[in-house]
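In response to the reviewer comment on reproducibility (Comment 2.3), we provide here a single inverse folding case reported in full, input and output, so that an independent group could reproduce the run without further information from us. The structure tokens appear first.
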């Protein structure tokens, strides 16, 4: 049976020269040594399915489920093939026969498109953490259909904030304090629910750098649905955001995953009636680090700088470094802060293993990837690790607790804010 998502990546697969350079870059191959885990392996499996040599079967699904979508393979590929698109297309095809995929899609549709419902669900999860109820999930770890990471949900989940960002700032319009005009702040789900203090620092940073700020009335960007292969749902969420923010000039977010996916809207909705608006929207999307320049910071230590004694190091989120080509920008900003010692992180672009919900669905693999990252954090010797993705923030903080490391994990805006 043909599948439109697989057909869409057929030309890309044909460009794979099967050189195998992707092996050296793949975090999963470094752990498993399985060829099926590599980009070359993914491309070959899909090629053989399209050519009719293989039938789409459940035996192949783990090879695609284990992929981090980190694009490390793309960075080592001569044609620079974005194999994450092949993997996502394969996941979409497998969803036709994967048990529970239809239920998963309906739950995502009900939650991701409804901020109020999502808020209630997150409150329930945080209540479970505060009450200790989440620890009871460990008793269910023997169930074969239960994601392994759920047994560790209590440990993985960050400390519940006293309130969410939208409860603190909505509605909010910060007038411009300089000649830079007004930007629209896209509220990422992870920042809103998991790290509202850091998100507030982002707003203060934008205002302190001379921007007026309007907080957007957006919904989920759609990346969680996309990575799970629910492409129609991802498109629906993208259309909704394009419509809601049609009047926005520049759309800024402090979540690297969100900024990456917002820029993907043009491709995601190509051929759609909303394609023109999506292309215009994607062209206006920016990551926070793109609209902040060293000269805006004045070279002076921020007001909160004294709170971060000692050196800092920086972990590069995959969706910022590889998807957007912004690997150097955050480091330049950190190095521009006077009296702040910056130390390079070995393998700074090596994935931390969070990958959205990957830490839940592929817990053991995620921990193996995280172990390498924490070994490098220890080697850097900096008491503060900085990054700019909420999934990375939660994963690195969990890694520090898991490995008994006295390391503070902070968002970039918490170091730069005035």
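Designed residues, in position order:
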């Amino acid at each position: 049976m043909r599948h439109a998502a697989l057909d869409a990546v057929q030309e890309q697969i044909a460009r794979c020269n099967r050189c195998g350079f992707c092996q050296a870059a793949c975090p999963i191959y470094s752990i498993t040594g399985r060829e099926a885990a590599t980009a070359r392996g993914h491309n070959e499996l899909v090629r053989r399915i399209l050519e009719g040599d293989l039938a789409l079967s459940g035996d192949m699904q783990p090879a695609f489920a284990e992929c981090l979508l980190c694009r490390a393979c793309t960075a080592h590929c001569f044609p620079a093939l974005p194999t994450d698109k092949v993997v996502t297309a394969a996941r979409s095809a497998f969803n036709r026969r994967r048990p529970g995929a239809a239920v998963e899609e309906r739950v995502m549709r009900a939650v991701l498109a409804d901020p109020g419902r999502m808020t209630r669900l997150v409150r329930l999860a945080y209540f479970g953490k505060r009450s200790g109820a989440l620890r009871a999930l460990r008793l269910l770890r023997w169930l074969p259909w239960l994601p392994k990471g759920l047994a560790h949900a209590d440990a993985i989940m960050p400390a519940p904030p006293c309130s969410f960002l939208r409860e603190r700032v909505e509605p909010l319009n910060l007038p411009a304090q300089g000649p830079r005009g007004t930007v629209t702040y896209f509220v990422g789900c992870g920042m809103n629910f998991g790290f509202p203090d850091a998100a507030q620092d982002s707003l203060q940073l934008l205002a302190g750098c001379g921007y007026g700020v309007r907080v957007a009335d957006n919904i989920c960007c759609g990346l969680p649905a996309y990575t799970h292969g629910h492409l129609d749902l991802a498109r629906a969420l993208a259309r909704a955001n394009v419509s809601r923010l049609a009047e926005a000039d520049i759309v800024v977010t402090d979540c690297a995953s969100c900024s990456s996916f917002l820029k993907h809207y043009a491709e995601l909705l190509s051929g759609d009636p909303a394609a023109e608006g999506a292309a215009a929207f994607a062209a206006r999307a920016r990551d926070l680090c793109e609209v902040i320049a060293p000269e805006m910071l004045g070279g002076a230590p921020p007001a909160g700088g004294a709170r971060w004694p000692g050196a800092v190091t920086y972990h590069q989120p995959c969706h910022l470094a590889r998807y957007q080509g912004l690997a150097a920008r955050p480091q330049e900003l950190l190095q521009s802060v006077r009296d702040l010692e910056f130390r390079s992180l070995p393998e700074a672009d090596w994935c931390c293993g969070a990958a959205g919900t990957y830490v839940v669905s592929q817990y053991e693999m995620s921990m193996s990837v995280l172990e390498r990252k924490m070994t490098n954090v220890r080697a850097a010797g900096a008491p503060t690790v900085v990054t700019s993705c909420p999934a990375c923030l939660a994963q690195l903080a969990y890694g520090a607790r898991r490995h008994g490391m006295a390391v503070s994990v902070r968002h970039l805006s918490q170091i730069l804010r005035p």
